[in-house]
Design brief:
This protein has 445 residues and is of the alpha/beta class. The chain has helices spanning 32-43, 84-87, 127-143, 171-183, 201-214, 239-247, 264-268, 276-283, 287-320, 323-326, 329-371, 373-378, 423-428, 437-444, and strands at 48-61, 64-70, 77-82, 99-109, 114-124, 161-166, 189-193, 218-224, 252-255, 271-272, 383-386, 403-408, 411-416. The protein has three domains: 4-125, OB fold (Dihydrolipoamide Acetyltransferase, E2P) (Beta Barrel); 130-285, Rossmann fold; 374-444, no CATH class. The strands form three sheets. The protein has a five-stranded mixed barrel. Helix 4 (171-183) links the parallel strand 6 and strand 7. Helix 4 (171-183) packs parallel to helix 8 and helix 5 (201-214) runs parallel beside helix 6. The radius of gyration is 61 Å and the shape is elongated.
């Protein structure tokens, strides 16, 4: 049965001058009153259902309560009404952010065309059930390695800028600022305010984390809240927030301030601080402590350097007290005598070697001079060349009329051959009787 077929359900009679919605057309439209009555009669058949969700708004007017419930696993929401007659039967401490289950019945108001649910019963979700779901998620995330110490990023020694996510004008914000500035007066903050409970907690914290993680000047991010009961801290165990913190590139410090039943954010953060004050003390160093440490290191360095200098002076004095350094002249004199003797021996040996080399050089020079053609020319011999450069060794090589060049000891002269002469004529030539036989042979050449 469709919504428009539900007009047959007993109830307030629709206007008589209007067709049923299922029979409507452009020529015969139905009336709004009849349409609303049809919808009301249809939803009246649904009966009462139990739903689970989180209270996102809670307004009391004239004894009645007008509120909204949000699905804890999605963004789906419904409007609810708690009449004054039912209000006395529900817990008096219900407030925004509470996780509840409610018995609701669909109700459609014909005059206003307003759809909502009327509450007949409502109670808190058992904390044990919530904690059980929380522990199952904790086990899953641990199995995925999101809690491993190896993946936690170290905090910088002195951050340039600290990103802070906390409630606006909250005590947590004041504690972090005050204690950080007491330790390091020049510390700088970039604070992004976010709701720390209720339905806006997770989306606003996620948005703030995204902004600060993308800022290159921010060196560490602190998520702070001044404690609270486990019910109000459920937003800091939301799986979306936990995974976003694990994926952040900037180190994240969890400072929720709740020792028992700590949220999952404490497990996945790079550092867990017990309180916002503790977070401030662990994020920035103490100026006084650092100055004391520098003074201590300076004193230690001065002591070590003084000890080293004193040790080196003692070593030097010990070396200077040795005889060889106290009176080095006798050692130098002995060494000087040895050097003088070695130098004299070297000069004598070198002199003898030079004399022997000189004599050998003279012998070689005499042998070379004896074998040299210039020595032969100096004794009165000559070398005859024809014009074609041939040296005349046989008289037949220079027939009559041959132009010859005669090279003697000092210079050359030109001659013309008259031909070969008889040996008898040679024997009668002046000076031929005193020439050696082989020298006569050279003369003939």
């Amino acid at each position: 049965m469709t919504v428009f077929e539900a007009a047959s359900v007993p109830g307030e009679a629709p206007p008589a001058d209007s067709v049923a919605p299922r029979e409507s057309s452009a020529d015969a439209p139905t009336s709004i009153a009849r349409l609303n009555a049809t919808i009301r009669d249809f939803v009246a058949q649904w009966g009462t259902v139990w739903v689970e969700g989180e209270i996102t708004s809670w307004n009391v007017r004239a004894g009645n309560i007008f509120a909204r419930l949000k699905d804890t696993r999605s963004d789906a929401q419904i409007s609810i009404r708690v009449w004054s007659s039912v209000r006395a039967r529900i817990p008096a401490d219900l407030a925004v952010g509470d996780h509840v289950i409610a018995a609701v019945k669909a109700d459609y108001f014909v005059k206003a065309g307003d759809f909502s649910f009327t509450v007949s019963a409502m109670k808190h979700v058992g904390l044990g059930d919530q904690l059980e779901r929380l522990e199952r998620l904790r086990a899953q995330l641990r199995q995925e390695g999101l809690f491993d110490p190896s993946r936690k990023k170290p905090l910088p020694f002195l951050p340039h800028v600290i990103g802070l996510i906390t409630g606006e004008n909250s005590d947590a914000e004041k504690d972090v600022h005050r204690n950080a500035e007491l330790r390091w007066p020049q510390v700088r903050f970039r604070t992004v305010h976010a709701a720390v409970q209720g339905d806006r907690c997770v989306p606003e914290t996620l948005a703030a984390l995204k902004v600060l993680d993308a800022d290159p000047d921010v060196d560490v991010i602190v998520i702070a809240r001044g404690g609270g009961d486990p019910q109000t801290l459920l937003g800091f165990s939301d799986e979306r927030l936990v995974r976003a913190v694990a994926a952040a590139t900037t180190p994240v410090v969890s400072a929720i301030g709740h020792e028992n039943d700590h949220p999952l954010l404490d497990d996945v953060a790079d550092l867990r601080a017990s309180t916002p004050t503790d977070a401030a003390k662990r994020v920035v160093p103490d100026l006084g402590e650092q100055r004391a440490l520098v003074a201590q290191l300076r004193a230690r360095a001065t002591t070590r350097v003084s000890q080293r200098i004193s040790h080196d002076i003692a070593q030097l004095e010990q070396l200077r007290s040795r005889p060889v350094l106290r009176d080095p002249e006798p050692l130098i004199e002995r060494r000087a005598q040895e050097v003088w003797l070695l130098a004299a021996r070297s000069r004598d040996t070198l002199g003898r070697a030079v004399d022997a080399a000189g004599r050998r050089t003279a012998e070689l020079r005499a042998s070379l001079r004896a074998l040299s053609p210039a020595a032969t020319l100096a004794r009165g011999y000559a070398i005859a060349h024809r014009e074609d450069g041939l040296i005349v060794r046989d008289a037949a090589d220079a027939p009559a009329g041959t132009v010859l060049t005669l090279t003697v000891d000092r210079g050359s002269l030109r001659a013309v051959s008259e031909g070969e002469i008889a040996e008898a004529d040679v024997a009668e030539a002046p000076g031929s009787g005193s020439a050696a036989p082989d020298e006569g042979s050279d003369a003939r050449r």
